Amino acid sequence: MLLTKPHKEYAELVDILLTRKMVVEDISYAKRKLSQVGYYRLSGFWFTSRRTAIVTENGIRQSQFIDEFLPNTSFNEVYKLYLFDKKLRLLLLDIIERLEVNIRSVMAHELGRIDPLAYKNKDFIKKDSPRVRRNYDNVWLPKLQDEIKRNKAEFIIYHRENDKEIPFWVIVEIWDFGTLSKYYSFLKGNNQKKISKKFGIDHVTFGKWLHEINILRNLCAHHSRVWNKDFNAITLPNTRVETNERTSQRVFSRILILWYLIQQTDSKNYKWLEKLKDLIDTDFPDVPNAKLEFMGLGEYTTLPIELMKQNYNEST
Q1: Which of 33, 89, 153, 203 has the lowest tally of Cβ within 10 angstroms?
Q2: Which InterPro entries does the UniProt record give (predicted)?
Q3: Distance between first and last Cα of the chain
Q4: How many C-beta neighbours within 10 Å does residue 210 have?
Q5: What is the radius of gyration, based on Cα positions, of the chain?
Q6: What is the pLDDT of residue 312?
Q7: Considering the entire predicted model, what is its pTM?
């Protein structure tokens, strides 16, 4: 299999950008940032700032990006967009972590009161789905057992060395969001409802939200671009915020969901929302054809923080 493109040194990569009419304010700075971040990673942030041309393929005329940047496309501003996305991911990870701990606690409390070893009890798992049963028996539970054998947390070592069963409220401390989301998907509907009602949403929608939040969490943890990413369409919480069809497939939909869920148990804490608004207001750069609406914000020019607060307050 042939390589599609030859290797380029950083100076050559800067020359490519200049040839394509990007404004490079400081060549040394650009080379340094390309060495730190990588040309390919940064290209995802200038991709839509290129000119388009009408081309004909197989008799069909269509618009296509060409290798020339729009006027005033600045390397410095593109790098600021990269930093904006990085800060956005860190904020998202912060609220996802809080939500993960919260869901763990609720799940362990609600199911643990019925059976302290509910996570090992197959009576809690759907019986009408052979696929779920196989996944639980052959994948999820063995993976958890392997983690228990390897884990070096003192509380796990204590239970392991003393041959003690690990209760639900202890075992959840070594679960990640994916383990949690998958376990919820295995549960019978009545058990799911015990958890979802604490977060003010029906059990089916809650399960779908958990799955999508886990996808978002993995993207953030692995440094993938999220600010303008296309996601799966998803049901949004009831809100005073104006949304459109595009919203449900962009990161703003996940922000609305995360905010709704976290407010069910922490309704007076607006600090995270204010940090996010400040990021959008102060750090979103001036990059041609990079617009806030690509986050799913629609006509909003900033985060509609007051509407988001009103929505929660009036729904409780």
Answers
A1: 153
A2: Abi_system_AbiD/AbiF, Abi_system_AbiD/AbiF-like
A3: 60
A4: 26
A5: 24
A6: 54
A7: 0.93
The residue whose two tokens read 């800067």 is: 14
Give 147's Cβ-side CA count (13 Å radius): 15
How large is the angle between the packed helices 75-112 and 203-221, nearest 10 degrees? 140
- Cβ-contact 258, 95 below 8 angstroms: yes
Q: For residue 112, give the 3-state DSSP assignment.
A: helix
Token digits for 180?
A: 């949690």
Beta bridge mates, 60: 57
**10-63, pLDDT tens digit by residue?**
999 999 999 999 999 999 999 999 999 999 999 999 999 999 998 888 888 888
Please tell me the distance from the alpha carbon of residue 159 to that of residue 163, in angstroms, as a whole number. Answer: 6
Q: Could you tell me the pLDDT band of residue 316, with boundaries at 50, 70 and 90?
A: very low
Question: Residue 227 in contact with residue 85, Cβ under 8 Å?
Answer: yes
Query: CA-to-CA distance for 287 and 76, rounded, in angstroms?
Result: 9
